[in-house]
Specification:
Elements (H helix, E strand, L loop, with lengths): L2 H8 L1 H4 L1 H40 L4 E4 L5 E2 L1 H8 L5 E10 L5 E7 L17 H8 L3 E3 L4 H5 L4 E8 L2 E8 L3 H8 L8 E5 H7 L5 E2 L1 E4 L3 H10 L5 E4 H44 L1 H9 L4 H45 L12 H27 L9 H32 L3 H34 L4 H12 L1 H39 L4 E5 L15 H9 L3 E12 L2 E9 L10 E4 L3 H10 L2 E5 H7 L6 E6 L2 E11 L8 E5 H6 L9 E5 L6 H13 L5 E4 L1 H44 L1 H9 L4 H43 L9 H18 L1 H8 L3 H6 L3
Parallel strand pairs: 4-8, 5-7, 14-19, 16-18
Antiparallel strand pairs: 1-10, 1-11, 2-9, 3-4, 3-10, 5-8, 6-7, 12-20, 12-21, 13-14, 13-20, 15-18, 16-19, 17-18
Helix pairs in contact: 1-12, 3-10, 3-12, 3-13, 3-23, 10-12, 10-13, 10-17, 10-23, 12-13, 12-23, 14-15, 15-16, 15-17, 15-25, 16-25, 17-23, 17-25, 17-26, 23-26, 23-27, 25-26, 25-27
C-alpha cells in the first residue's frame, strides 16, 4: 500500500471530522465502560482476597468449635501434645465512630510466625505494645493517612462487649509512606493481642478458632485427636462460598459492560460503511490508476485500526477515571453481602490494559470487515453505488433472518438443558440477543413496507418511509443499536423491579414483630454480639408484649462445609408468615415436627448451592460429633446469599447445643398500645444495662435493607445510562450519514417546492420512525432478557428465586426515552439539511 493511497483515503478525516468524532466517542465509551468495570472488579477482588487471606494467614486448616467459642485451655493441650504449628485466634466485627465496619483479629504474636508475619514481628515496637499494653490495636496500613488522624489516637469501637475505647497505634511512619504508592485500599482488618480481643469481643477465656499448618498425613491424625466438640476444617471451605458469590456478582457486571461495547460495534460499522460510500469516486479513481483490491481492502482496515487504537487509548484513560467512581460501589456491595473490604483506588494492571486494547481494536477491525469487503468489490465508477449495496443488504437481511432462527434455537437449547451453569446462561443470553438483533433488519424491511402502504396517499410520510427502506444498510444497524440499548434497559428494569418487589414482600412477611431489640455491635459469621437470654422477662414487663421471639445466627460445621445456622424461638403463628416453597409435610404439622424432631428448614440459596431437597439429611456438628437433621422444607429468604439453615431452639437445645445468649428479641405488642411510649421505656431500661442494645422498628429494618438493595444495583443503573448514551450516538451518526448521502434527493425536493420546514419535518419524521420501531422491538426483547436474568442467570449465580413483575411504568418510560433520543438525534441532521446549498447537492453523482 503506497503512501499516496493512504493520504488520498485519509483526507476525508479533515473534511468530515464530525463523523470520525462520533465513531471515536462510541469506541471511547464502550472501551471505558469495559475497562472501568474490569478494574473495579479486580480491585474489589484483590481487596476481598487480601482480607480473607489476612484472616486465614498461611494456615491449611482451622480448628473450629461452637459459635460461642471454646475453652482456650484446648489450645494449650494441643501445644503440649506436640502440635507446634498452631496459633489461637479470636475474631469478630466492630464498628468505628463513623459507622464503618471493621474486622478485629486477635492473635498471639509469639505463635504467629508461621501464619501472619506482620503480626508476629515481636521486635517491632508496636507489636511489643500489643502484648504489653492492654487496649492497643494496629489498624491496616494507610488508615492513619486516609482518616487524617495522628499516628496514635484513641478510638471508641462498638463491639460485642459494648462500647470500648482503644489506643490505635501505628508502625513506623516510613512504612506508611512506602505503602502510599502500592496500597490499593485502607483495608478492614485490625490486629490486636488475643487478650485485648477477648475483652472487646466478649470472649474471655475462649477462642474462636485455632489456625494450624498440616501435611496431608497429619490431617487425619489431628482430626482424631481433637475433642468431640471441635472440628478440623480446611481453610478453603470458609471462604469458598463467599468467593463464588462475589465472582458471580462481578460476572453480571462484566456482561452488562460488554453490551456497551457491542453497541459501539454497530456505530463503527455504520461509520465505516458511510466512509466507503462517500469515497466511491476516490475508490473508482484509485482502481483506474491500477490500485489493487487488496490495497483498497487494506486501507479501509487501516482506517478502522487507527480509529480503534485512538478510541481505545482515550477510552483506557477515561476507563481508569471511571473505575475510581465504580470501585467504591463494587466494594460496598461486596461488604454488604459477603465480607468487609475497603478499597480506595484502582491500580491498572498491564494484563487488563492489554486485554481491553485487543478487545477495542479487534472489535473495530471486525466491524469494518464488511465495509472493507464492499470497497474491495469496486471495479469502477458506480459499482459502489447505493442501489447495488441496498439490494445486497436486502438479500443479506433474509439470510440473517435464517441465521437468527439458528441462534435462537441454540440459545433456547442451552436454557432447556442448563448446560454450562452461569457461563452457559450468559452464552444463552447473548445467543438470544444476537438472534433477535439479526432478525431486526428483515422485520424492519417489512415494517417499512407496511407503513409505506398505510400512508400511500400522504406524500411526505411516504417519502420518509420509502427513503428509510431504500437505505436499509444505514437504518438497520442504527436501529439495532438503539433496540439493543433499550432492551437492556427494559431487561434490567424487569430484573431489578422483580427483585425489589420480592424483597419488599419477603421483608413484610419476615418482620412479624412490632419492635426488635438487637445488639449495638455488628454481627459476624461465627456468632457476633449476643444479648442475655434472661432479659426476656424484663422486656415483657416494660413493654407489655403479648409474645416474644428470639433469633440467633451462627456458623457451624456440617458435612457440606461451614453453614449459617439460624436458631429461632418463634411466635406461635410464625409459619403463617413463612414463604414456604417446598415441604415434605403439611404446613399444619411442620411446626410440631421442627420442635420435636431433629429437623431443619433451608433457604432457597442454600438448597441451590448445596443441591439439597426436602427429605434429604444434613449432618451438623454438635457436642459429641456429627448429627443428622432431616430437611423438611425450603423457604424463600434474601437475608444471606450463601444460604441459611433454620432450626428451632427446642431442637437446638435437644441436640446438646445450649444457647449462648440471643441475637435479637422480637416483641409483639397489644393492639392500640402507644408504641412510642414503649420504645422510650425500653431505651431507658437498656441504657442502664452493661450490654449495648438498640430498639428498632420493622420500618427501620426495611429501610436499611432496601438501602443496601439500592446500593447493590446502583452501578447497574449507571451502566444502563451509559449504554443508552452509546446508542444515542449511534442513531445520531446513522441519521447524519443517511441525510448526507441523500443530499441530492433532498435538493431535488427543495427544487420542486419543498420548504426548509418540510425538510426538517421529513428528517425528524425519519428519526421518529426509527426510534418508534426500535422502542417497540425492544419491548419483547427486553422482557425476554429480564426473564432470563431472573429465571436462569440469577438462579445460577445466587440461587435466589423471585416473582416476575412487569414494571410497566419503567417500560413506558424507556420506550418514550428511545423515541425521544431518536427525535433529539435527528435535530442536527434536520437543521443541516434545511440549510444545505442546493446547486452543489444537485451536481453530486448519485
Amino acid at each position: 500500500m503506497s503512501l499516496l493511497v493512504l493520504r488520498a483515503w485519509l483526507r476525508d478525516w479533515r473534511r468530515r471530522p464530525l463523523q470520525r468524532l462520533l465513531t471515536l466517542v462510541g469506541v471511547i465509551i464502550g472501551v471505558a465502560v469495559v475497562l472501568a468495570v474490569d478494574l473495579a472488579n479486580q480491585s474489589a477482588q484483590r481487596a476481598f482476597d487480601r482480607s480473607m487471606d489476612e484472616v486465614a494467614g498461611a494456615a491449611t486448616h482451622q480448628v473450629l468449635g461452637p459459635a460461642s467459642g471454646f475453652d482456650e485451655a484446648l489450645y494449650r493441650e494441643l501445644r503440649m501434645a506436640g502440635w507446634r504449628d498452631t496459633a489461637p485466634i479470636v475474631e469478630g466485627p466492630a464498628r468505628l465512630p463513623d459507622g464503618s465496619t471493621i474486622y478485629v483479629l486477635g492473635v498471639d504474636p509469639l505463635a504467629e510466625g508461621p501464619f501472619r508475619g506482620a503480626a508476629s514481628d515481636i521486635g517491632d515496637a508496636p507489636v511489643q505494645r500489643l502484648v504489653t499494653e492492654p487496649g492497643t490495636i494496629l489498624p491496616p496500613a494507610g488508615w492513619f493517612r486516609d482518616s487524617g488522624r495522628a499516628h496514635e489516637s484513641r478510638v471508641t469501637l462498638e463491639v460485642a462487649g459494648g462500647a470500648r475505647e482503644v489506643t490505635v497505634i501505628d508502625r513506623a511512619a516510613e512504612r506508611d509512606q512506602a505503602d502510599t504508592a502500592t496500597d490499593e485500599g485502607g483495608g478492614s482488618l485490625w490486629v490486636t493481642d488475643i487478650a485485648t480481643a477477648q475483652g472487646l469481643l466478649d470472649r474471655l477465656g475462649r477462642l474462636d478458632r485455632i489456625d494450624v499448618r498440616l501435611t496431608d498425613a497429619e490431617v487425619d491424625v489431628l482430626a482424631k485427636a481433637l475433642p468431640a466438640e471441635l472440628e478440623l476444617v480446611p481453610v478453603e471451605s470458609r471462604g469458598q462460598a463467599a468467593r463464588e458469590l462475589a465472582q458471580a456478582f462481578r460476572t453480571n457486571l462484566t456482561a452488562m459492560s460488554l453490551l456497551a461495547l457491542l453497541i459501539a460495534a454497530f456505530l463503527i460499522y455504520n461509520t465505516q460503511t458511510f466512509a466507503v460510500l462517500r469515497r466511491r469516486e476516490v475508490i473508482a479513481s484509485l482502481r483506474l490508476v491500477g490500485v489493487g483490491r487488496r490495497a483498497i481492502f487494506g486501507v479501509v482496515l487501516l482506517e478502522a485500526l487507527l480509529v480503534g487504537v485512538i478510541g481505545t487509548l482515550l477510552g483506557a484513560v477515561l476507563g481508569i477515571a471511571l473505575a475510581q467512581v465504580l470501585v467504591a460501589q463494587v466494594a460496598q456491595t461486596v461488604t454488604d453481602h459477603f465480607f468487609a473490604v475497603a478499597v480506595t483506588g484502582v491500580t491498572p494492571r498491564p494484563l487488563a490494559l492489554g486485554a481491553v486494547f485487543l478487545l477495542g481494536v479487534g472489535l473495530s477491525l471486525l466491524a469494518a470487515l464488511a465495509p472493507a469487503w464492499e470497497a474491495a468489490r469496486a471495479a469502477g465508477a458506480g459499482t459502489t453505488g447505493r442501489g447495488g449495496l441496498e439490494r445486497r443488504a436486502r438479500r443479506w437481511a433474509a439470510w440473517l433472518a435464517v441465521l437468527s432462527v439458528a441462534l435462537l434455537l441454540a440459545g433456547g437449547g442451552l436454557i432447556v438443558t442448563g448446560a454450562g451453569a452461569l457461563v452457559g446462561g450468559f452464552v444463552a443470553l447473548f445467543l438470544l440477543i444476537a438472534g433477535l438483533v439479526l432478525l431486526l433488519p428483515w422485520v424492519l424491511v417489512w415494517t417499512l413496507r407496511g407503513l409505506a402502504a398505510l400512508v400511500r396517499g400522504v406524500t411526505l410520510p411516504r417519502i420518509a418511509v420509502r427513503s428509510l427502506e431504500r437505505s436499509l444498510s444505514r437504518s438497520a444497524p442504527a436501529t439495532s443499536a438503539l433496540t439493543l440499548a433499550l432492551a437492556a434497559a427494559i431487561g434490567v428494569a424487569v430484573m431489578v423491579g422483580s427483585f425489589r418487589g420480592s424483597v419488599e414482600q419477603w421483608l413484610g412477611q419476615a418482620l412479624t414483630s412490632d419492635l426488635y431489640v438487637v445488639p449495638a455491635a455488628p454481627a459476624s459469621a461465627r456468632g457476633g454480639a449476643r444479648l442475655p437470654e434472661d432479659w426476656m422477662a424484663d422486656l415483657v414487663a416494660r413493654s407489655g408484649a403479648v409474645s416474644v421471639s428470639t433469633g440467633s445466627s451462627q456458623e457451624v460445621v456440617s458435612e457440606r462445609g461451614l453453614v449459617n445456622l439460624y436458631v429461632v424461638r418463634p411466635h406461635a403463628n410464625w409459619l403463617d408468615y413463612l414463604p414456604l416453597l417446598e415441604s415434605t409435610v403439611a404446613r399444619e404439622a411442620l411446626g410440631e415436627r421442627l420442635a420435636t424432631e431433629d429437623a431443619v428448614l433451608v433457604t432457597e440459596p442454600f438448597a441451590a448451592h448445596h443441591d439439597v431437597r426436602p427429605g434429604d439429611r444434613l449432618s451438623l456438628a454438635v457436642p459429641g460429633g456429627q448429627r443428622p437433621f432431616e430437611v423438611l422444607g425450603i423457604y424463600r429468604d434474601y437475608g444471606n446469599p450463601s444460604g441459611t439453615v433454620l432450626m428451632t431452639q427446642a431442637a437446638f437445645v435437644r441436640a446438646g447445643m445450649p444457647p449462648d445468649g440471643v441475637g435479637s428479641f422480637g416483641l409483639r405488642l397489644p393492639a392500640g398500645v402507644d408504641v412510642e411510649a414503649v420504645v422510650e421505656r425500653l431505651e431507658d431500661w437498656l441504657a442502664e444495662q452493661d450490654r449495648a442494645a438498640l430498639v428498632t422498628r420493622p420500618g427501620d429494618i426495611e429501610q436499611e435493607s432496601m438501602a443496601i438493595f439500592d446500593r447493590t444495583f446502583a452501578i447497574t443503573h449507571l451502566l444502563r445510562v451509559i449504554t443508552l448514551v452509546v446508542a444515542f450516538i449511534a442513531i445520531l451518526g446513522a441519521l447524519m450519514a443517511l441525510q448526507m448521502e441523500r443530499a441530492r434527493e433532498f435538493a431535488t425536493l427543495r427544487s420542486l417546492g419543498l420548504l426548509p420546514g418540510g425538510v426538517r419535518s421529513l428528517v425528524v419524521l425519519q428519526g421518529g420512525v426509527l426510534g418508534t420501531f426500535a422502542a417497540l422491538a425492544a419491548i419483547p426483547l427486553g422482557l425476554g432478557m429480564g426473564w432470563l436474568l431472573i429465571e436462569v442467570i440469577n438462579r445460577e449465580a445466587f440461587g435466589w428465586g423471585m416473582d416476575l413483575r412487569l414494571p410497566w411504568d419503567e417500560v413506558v418510560e424507556t420506550v418514550l426515552l428511545g423515541i425521544g433520543a431518536a427525535l433529539l438525534a435527528s435535530a442536527i441532521p434536520a437543521w443541516r439539511m434545511a440549510r444545505m446549498r442546493l446547486v452543489p447537492a444537485l451536481r453530486e453523482v448519485p
